[in-house]
Amino acid sequence: MKTLQKHLFKLLLLAIASSVSVGSQADDKLEKIVAGKHRTESYAARDNYRNPVETLKFFGIKDNMTVVEISPGGGWYTEILAPYLKDNGTYIAAGYDPESKSDYYKRGALSYKKKLDANPELYGKVKLGIMEAPDKMDFAAPNSADMIVTFRNTHNWNSSGNAEVVFAAMFKALKPGGILGLVQHRAGHNFPKDTSGKMGYLRQDKVIEMAEAAGFRLIDKSDVNANPKDTRDHEAGVWTLPPVLRLKEKDKEKYMAIGESDRMTLKFVKPEAK
Fold first, then answer.
1. 111-146: per-residue pLDDT in tens?
2. Whole-structure pTM value
3. How many Å apart are CA 129 and CA 79, to the nearest integer?
4. Dihedral pair phi/psi, residue 202, rounded to 5°
5. What's the rounded Cα separation, in Å, for the pair 83 and 116?
6. CA nearest neighbour of 261 among 46, 14, 5
7. 33-75, pLDDT tens digit by residue?
8. Which of 220, 226, 217, 233 has the alpha carbon at shortest distance from 269?
């Protein structure tokens, strides 16, 4: 009996060691990709504000997951997520419709597709989904994604009146037990006075309420992307700060010294069905 117990204990230790080793390899892979020469120089220069390694680790990403990124924009996180997931997982970029009636959306979609086509070795396995609220929301099959991530987009949904439909669509696409990782410019108690999203900032408690109203449950929050220097009372909202610098040369040194916005980093789960 004691021999059997010792054998089982050794097997347990081996399993734990193997799990730690696999996790460590995945972390090393993520760090190597973030440090990779393939990344756009101006994108990599923002790592000290966007903290991609720490943020994705906080969300619990693994390289065998199906991960949806909502509104990938110019592909800042695509340069990290696509190569990280291409061998063992799936990366779905849920962006604008290339046949959109909106010229702005259409240009954005075509520009993003051009970026992917320029490097098939890295981006050839990227799957394109369409997320153009409120009508085009079937960016992934129901209950198919292990994780959905979205970076600094929630203010747009809220100010346009589309937050409810977007959170519902993300909830629908995630598997039970799936993770929603969200980063958003964070309003303070008093600033900005307009926290509808028109100034780029939202209150953290309101964002949590939006997600919970769709059925999500908050499981953790982090200050990895916090910036206490951000006073949030800027003339042109969050776009006063870098990288946009909407006021151009006006008080540029001041805003460069502040850096990018203060941001909430929230981790939600789609609860398992009872």
1. 999 999 999 999 999 999 999 999 999 999 999 999
2. 0.90
3. 17
4. -135, 150
5. 12
6. 46
7. 999 999 999 999 999 999 999 999 999 999 999 999 999 999 9
8. 217
Task: From 92, 26, 95, 94, select the one nearest 59 (Cα to Cα).
Answer: 26
Residue where the block lists tokens 């609860």: 271
Annotate the chain with three-state secondary structure: CHHHHHHHHHHHHHHHHHHHHHHHHHHHHHHHHHCCCCCCHHHHCCHHHHCHHHHHHHHCCCCCCEEEEECCCCCCCHHHHHHHHCCCCEEEEEECCCCCCCHHHHHHHHHHHHHHHCCHHHHCCCEEEECECCCECCCCCCCCEEEEEEECCHHHHHHCCCHHHHHHHHHHHEEEEEEEEEEEEECCCCCCCCCCCCCCCECHHHHHHHHHHCCCEEEEEECCCCCCCCCCCCCCHHHHCCCCCCCCCCCHHHHHHHCCCCEEEEEEECCCCC
Q: How many CB atoms lie within 10 A of CB 120?
A: 10
Structure tokens at 50: 């966007």
Residue 122 in tokens: 């890295």
Tokens representing residue 272 in the block: 């398992």
- Going along the chain from its start, the domains and CATH numbers come out as 36-269 (3.40.50.150)
- 87: which 2 tokens? 């061998």
The token pair that represents 236 in the structure block: 């042109």
